[in-house]
Design brief:
There is one protein chain. By secondary structure, this protein is mainly α. The protein contains 13 helices and two strands, in the order H-H-H-H-E-H-H-H-H-H-H-H-H-E-H. The chain has helices spanning 3-13, 19-24, 30-36, 39-44, 69-75, 79-108, 113-126, 128-131, 137-151, 159-166, 169-176, 181-186, 196-201, and strands at 47-50, 189-192. It has a two-stranded antiparallel sheet. The longest helix has 30 residues, at 79-108. The protein is globular, with a radius of gyration of 17 Å. The model is unreliable at 1-37 (pLDDT under 50).
Length: 202
């Protein structure tokens, strides 16, 4: 498949905000991405772990039973489009690893739970293009409108709003580094949290 074909395919699979990233870093099949993923995964069986092949089923345009919009979108894609979606999901997992690495460094510095939680929420919101990979522009617009109405912020809840929801800064930090198991499973992936010693050694 030519680079131009991959770029065209990516525009149908990932949000508009992610297209620039796709152009700068040409996509690899997920099988190749597995060899270039962060060392954390290969060293300790953590991070973004491939646990199953990408589904080769034909696109399913029937009623979707999953409550996850991204899962429904993946099921409507071709196998080649799912390969691209998996590559993007692995990039999202790398973001989570970076966030966990930052958390480890902050804990080593003796920073407070509040400081850590606020930093992680900020990192996740700043990486909107990665967090929303796999969503169509229409889905992104719908999500941002819902977030704006509910939280007053198109990126989602602020650290303070999450604290009001969970009641502790530790739980806010945990929520910020969470990956949807349903979406991961649909793409044959698992995200496994890495111990600090592995993250800091990588």
């Amino acid at each position: 498949m030519s680079l131009n074909s991959v770029r065209s395919l990516a525009r149908r699979v990932v949000p508009t905000l992610l297209v620039a990233q796709v152009v700068l870093f040409p996509l690899q099949p997920a099988s190749a991405a597995a060899h270039t993923a962060h060392p954390c995964r290969s060293l300790a069986g953590c991070g973004s772990v491939v646990v199953a092949p990408v589904s080769q089923a034909a696109p399913d345009h029937g009623d979707c039973t999953s409550p996850e919009p991204v899962v429904c979108q993946i099921r409507r894609e071709t196998p080649t489009e799912r390969e691209v979606a998996r590559d993007q999901r692995m990039r999202y997992h790398q973001l989570l690893e970076d966030m966990e690495r930052e958390e480890c460094a902050m804990r080593e510095e003796g920073r407070s739970e509040e400081d850590i939680a606020r930093a992680l929420v900020r990192m996740r919101n700043d990486a909107k293009d990665v967090v929303r990979a796999g969503m169509t522009p229409e889905q992104v617009a719908e999500l941002e409108a819902r977030n704006q109405k509910k939280y007053g912020n198109p990126l989602g809840p602020t650290a303070d709003q999450l604290y009001m929801k969970y009641g502790s800064w530790e739980k806010v930090a945990e929520a910020a580094t969470r990956s949807s198991a349903a979406v991961d499973r649909e793409l044959g992936l698992e995200f496994r949290h890495c111990p600090c010693e592995v993250l800091q050694a990588a």
